[in-house]
Specification:
With 368 residues, the protein is mainly α. It has a single domain, classed as ABC transporter involved in vitamin B12 uptake, BtuC (Orthogonal Bundle), CATH 1.10.3470. Helices cover 75% and strands 0% of the residues. It has 14 helices and no strands. Helix 3 crosses helix 12, helix 8 packs antiparallel against helix 11 and helix 13 packs across helix 14. The two termini are 39 Å apart. 40% of the residues are buried.
Length: 368
């Protein structure tokens, strides 16, 4: 904590003492809460691995997990049909779903603090629509692979998100600063334009490919290859770790930019960093999973109600609960009408939409 001459000495001292005391208390609570959520996450992942079009016994689940983590027989030789299902399809899909859900929830927490808007979510910046437009263009052109064996859909999706990030940044930046209201307005406007372009591409595509595109846009998790999953793990975990390192800064930003500056935080630099990190993570997530809504908006609210608003707990807690939520939602999408699948975005919307309405009604009652 940096004492600033802009703060009265007594106030600065009180803030410093409050922060130190809070850190001591939070350390014990952090270990308890996050440790419990990690255990719950592992239990949820293992349970969800059993369910699908074909039920797999727990013994086969554990054998497949041990096989993969020992690096042996990744092609599932000798494991039989349950092993093939587990190793090649369910395990990478469940891990991908957990990473996607955790990333969306972490982005939502960060944006709600950055924009000081409880309704902010990963799609408010318009980067998700840019990623969706890039993937739509790849489908329209019929591009299966881009370079060597790299799938074009995630690559074009990420490039689309990156280009929209640059455009939003240029639109919102003013005299070297990044005003929050300009950032939000630029994201909303660009989101509307890009969504219209996506609908145009959908209307001129072949009906068969158009149906596939619409299913992907509604949210779709597919089992990635293990090398691709490894890259995605490094990328998402790395960005989330940086965001969690900024947790105390997010606590201060929620109090307002003037207070943050008075405490020695370079608010403009921090805003640019957080915007860049959340936008890049959003583009990567959307490029592999499509448009999965409500996770980044609703999960932070739920976690905030359960464990409080301290971002040192809120951010990792939201990431873990968001991952569990999306894995469970994807399991429901896979099993409800098996062997057919429902787009997971529909399940998250049906679960998150009513809760979002409940939050609005509660806020309305408090205002009255």
């Amino acid at each position: 904590m940096i004492d600033s001459p802009m703060l009265p000495p007594a106030t600065a001292h009180a803030v410093s003492q409050w922060t130190k005391a809070g850190a001591i208390v939070t350390l014990h609570r952090w270990l308890l809460v996050i440790g419990g959520l990690i255990v719950a996450s592992v239990a949820v992942l293992v349970m969800c691995l059993q369910f699908g079009a074909t039920r797999v016994e727990m013994r086969a689940v554990m054998e497949a997990i041990l096989t993969v983590f020992h690096g042996e027989h990744i092609d599932a030789d000798g494991l039989g049909t349950p092993g093939i299902i587990m190793v090649q399809i369910r395990l990478p899909r469940v891990l991908m779903g957990f990473l996607v859900g955790g990333s969306l929830a972490g982005i939502g927490v960060t944006l709600q603090a950055l924009l000081r808007n409880p309704l902010a979510d990963p799609y408010v910046l318009g980067v998700s629509s840019g990623a969706a437009l890039g993937a739509s263009a790849a489908m329209l052109l019929g591009i299966g692979t881009a370079f060597s064996l790299v799938p074009a859909l995630p690559l074009f999706g990420f490039l689309g998100g990156l280009l929209s990030l640059v455009l939003i940044y240029r639109l919102a930046q003013s005299q070297g600063r990044l005003p929050v209201h300009s950032l939000l307005l630029a994201g909303v406007i660009l989101n509307a334009i890009l969504t219209a372009l996506i609908m145009f591409i959908t209307s001129i595509m072949d009906p068969n490919r158009s149906a596939g595109l619409m299913a992907w846009l509604m949210g779709s998790l597919t089992a990635p290859s293990y090398p691709a999953l490894g890259v995605f793990v490094l990328y998402t975990v790395g960005v989330l770790a940086i965001l969690m390192h900024k947790a105390q800064t997010l606590n201060v930003l929620t109090l307002g930019e003037e207070i943050a500056r008075s405490l020695g935080i370079e608010t403009e630099w921090v805003k640019k960093q957080l915007f860049l990190l959340t936008a890049l993570l959003t583009g990567a997530v959307v490029s592999v999973s499509g448009m999965i809504g409500f996770v980044g908006m609703v999960i932070p609210h739920v976690v905030r109600m359960l464990i409080g608003s301290d971002h040192r707990l809120l951010l990792p807690g939201s990431a873990l609960i968001g991952g569990m939520f999306l894995v469970v939602s994807d399991t429901i999408a896979r099993t409800l009408l098996a062997p057919s699948e429902i787009p997971v975005g529909i399940v998250t919307a049906l679960a998150g939409g009513p809760f979002f309405l409940y939050l609005l009604l509660c806020r309305k009652d408090r205002m009255n």
